[in-house]
Design a protein that fits this description.
By secondary structure, this protein is an alpha/beta fold. The protein has helices spanning 4-16, 56-65, 85-96, 116-134, 150-158, 178-191, 205-221, 229-233, and strands at 34-35, 43-49, 70-74, 100-103, 136-138, 140-141, 162-164, 168-169, 196-201, 225-226, 238-241. Its main location: membrane.
């Protein structure tokens, strides 16, 4: 669990500006843990990147209808600005419905090309937005494109976050057809590994309205419990939880 010192320091930094140097943070024990698979048997974690976007609520409703939980890795400024009324409402909707919200960094940049301070900036800005909108401070992040190096893991470790990758890619972001995406779930169910950690994107209409229900049906039919990433690795989803904040003039991209 994050220390009180780190919470105080981090929230102060979030309220003011991005950290300017490494010594702005309490020294962590080491680099972030990289999660590539779930560890709790018979669990499957469906994860959704690149939002919030117009299909986010539909994804949540489909998960809810099926008694499933999902994890949403949000950007601050990608398809939409997270602070705009509808995107912010989508984030709050997912959180209020018991799904996990997590960081996908601010602007979906290639983190491996950034400096130490630039990576911090990409991370703290979306953390601030999630804290303002939901009151929750995330304990998990996903590096855009699944790219990370020692610098990225050092920053994430100092921010007390785990870096989440995946072991099943639906292919929705790389041009796979709906039939090809469904075949990915057919194949994993046929192999029936102990756990599944899948990558989807909430920004595609086909994912929200065609592939998702199929994936849920296949995975549940194979005996998997559809849970959040935090649940599938036996960890807490947030470093701290408080009341959401009221919108101010600072809520902008």
């Amino acid at each position: 669990m994050i220390s009180k010192v780190f919470v105080t320091l981090t929230l102060a930094a979030l309220a003011l500006a991005a950290p300017a140097a490494e010594d702005a943070f309490e020294k962590r024990a080491g680099p972030a843990q990289v999660i590539t698979r779930c560890t709790v048997p018979n669990t499957a974690a469906l994860t959704f990147d690149d939002g919030p976007y117009i299909y986010g609520k539909d994804v949540v409703d489909t998960l809810d209808k099926n008694g499933a939980k999902g994890t949403f890795f949000y950007n601050g400024m990608n398809y939409d600005c997270i602070y705009d009324q509808n995107p912010a409402a989508t984030v709050k909707y997912a959180y209020d419905h018991g799904h996990q919200v997590a960081s996908h960094t601010w602007a979906h940049k290639h983190l491996n090309s950034l400096t130490f301070d630039q990576v911090h900036d990409e991370m703290w800005r979306v953390e601030q937005a999630l804290l303002r909108i939901t009151g929750a401070y995330p304990a998990f992040m996903r590096p855009p494109y699944g790219e990370y190096n020692a610098n990225v893991l050092k920053v994430a470790g100092q921010r007390n976050q785990s870096a989440v990758i995946w072991d099943l890619d639906s292919g929705d972001s790389t041009g796979s057809s709906v039939a090809q995406q469904k075949a990915q779930y057919d194949a994993v169910v046929s192999r029936h590994p102990s756990t599944v950690l899948s990558l989807e994107h909430e920004v595609y209409e086909t994912t929200a309205h065609q592939t998702l229900q199929y994936a849920i049906t296949k995975l549940k039919g194979a005996g998997y419990r559809l849970v959040t990433v935090a649940e599938c690795v036996g960890k807490q989803p947030y470093q701290s939880v408080s009341a959401p904040q009221s919108r101010t003039s600072d809520w902008h991209c």
